Amino acid sequence: MNIAKRVGAWGDRHHPKILDLLRMVLGMFLFFKGIIFFNNAGYLRYLILDTGAIKGSPGLISAIIYYVTYMHVLGGGLIFLGLFTRLWALLQLPIVFVAVFFVNITAPYVNSELWLSILVLALLCVFLVLGSGPLSLDRLLMKSKNNDELR
Questions:
Q1: What pTM did the predictor assign?
Q2: Where are the domains positioned within the chain?
Q3: Residue 139's closest CA among 11, 7, 26, 4?
Q4: How many CA atoms lie within 13 A of 85 on its CB side?
Q5: Each residue's pLDDT tens digit in the chain (151 positions)?
Q6: Segments in the chain forming alpha helices (H)
């Protein structure tokens, strides 16, 4: 736990405000990607089955579809707001990792989504280390808590 606290403290000290804008764009992207998957679950089912990596019951496939969709919607929204950013980035990592190494890389044609998935994976790793930043609900709640303790 000491290492996690030190990484968190280092990330809080080395966080330019421009990264908050990047965090918000990442959150919006994940949120809208989740909305797209929510509105077109058949496409997500096709992506999962087309890779051949998961061979299971229809119930397992449906559970994966719900997990991916709701993690993107909820996680993307909370990453955008900067609330528990490290936690939500960590929860997004397995989804995006699978998208990079099993879904997009196996496409037989040049896929622009591969590069987008790699970028999202890299940004999630960055925000896993750096955290929310100065323009976030985490920081606002921390300031509010510190002000309440001073009273």
A1: 0.82
A2: 2-150
A3: 11
A4: 31
A5: 577 677 667 666 766 778 899 999 999 999 999 999 999 988 888 877 877 767 778 888 888 889 999 999 999 999 999 999 999 999 999 999 988 887 777 666 666 688 889 999 999 999 998 888 888 888 888 877 776 665 5
A6: 2-13, 18-39, 41-51, 58-81, 85-98, 112-130, 137-150
